Amino acid sequence: MVYGALDIGGTKIAGALVDAEGRVVARAQRPTPARESAQSMMAAVNSVVDELAARPEWGALSCLGIGSAGPVDTFAGTVSPVNIPSWRSFPLVERVRNHPAVAGGVEPVLVGDAVAMAAAEHWVGAAKGAANALCMVVSTGVGAGLILGGSLHAGTTGNAGHIGHITVDQNGPVCPCGARGCVERYASGTAIAAHALKAGWVPPDGLPATAREVGISAQEGDPRALAAFDRAGRALAAAIAATAALVELDLVVVGGGVSQAGDVLFGPLRHHLGSFAVLDFTRDLPVVPAGLALDAGLIGAAAVGGAASGLFRAGAGGLTVT
Ligand SMILES: [Zn+2]
């Protein structure tokens, strides 16, 4: 039995076959033709499926999960990734289902990429065994997925856990989403770099002004870079404390490119969490780095496909979709 997985991102379309222990046994990848037509995009997806279908393991395919850059609508089976303009309410689930290599009994299941990563962390990563966890992706944007009562909580349209657009400052800057003071305006990689630059930080010679370089400067003690990470950690802490108060968390997992900065992010985040999460049931909430790196999106898509197909029920992997 193998689980099929597709991971649709702004730079690459990846696919994999994953075994029952969460290990990738086959993979395929194409660059995302993000600026091309909807048909070109789908041709790239089909090409990934073709390559996987040529593998002998494909014959044992029991389910197929799809994680995609958002927004997604899992109920409608459509995707509208911000970075892929030709796909707006694109019926991805129907198109994948209609691929000739996808057997009639295999119903593709769609979730947002952050929700998929939460599923992966819960299956084989840092949130394994956790009953109530918030799994965050701090990268170009800020996303998350929720594990509640031992199950992935995706929400009706698959967007539950959208922590990047929780307001942490009512009078804060306007966010592209239309609201004000969203977490992303402080804690995304883009926001961290912008804040450091505004404070006078200059990237090392010839390097781009990204959060990665700000992280390196912060590790070297640059006060402007440290301030940008402190600001990011504070915003994340406020949002985590709010989430903990709402749903009573046992664990927070933080992954994504910005989390690679390590202690310069986790230090301020934990420090500020101490001043925001002050109720008895929110205090001392563990915040740990993600356990999975590059394949989290694929493993999570496989997990969601398996969960939706009932393969994980009865406690086999502890993961069910609610
Ligand atoms: Zn927003």
Automatic annotation (TrEMBL):
Domain of life: Bacteria
Stated family: Belongs to the ROK (NagC/XylR) family.
PANTHER family: N-ACETYLMANNOSAMINE KINASE (PTHR18964:SF169), ROK (REPRESSOR, ORF, KINASE) FAMILY (PTHR18964)
Protein name listed in UniProt: Glucokinase
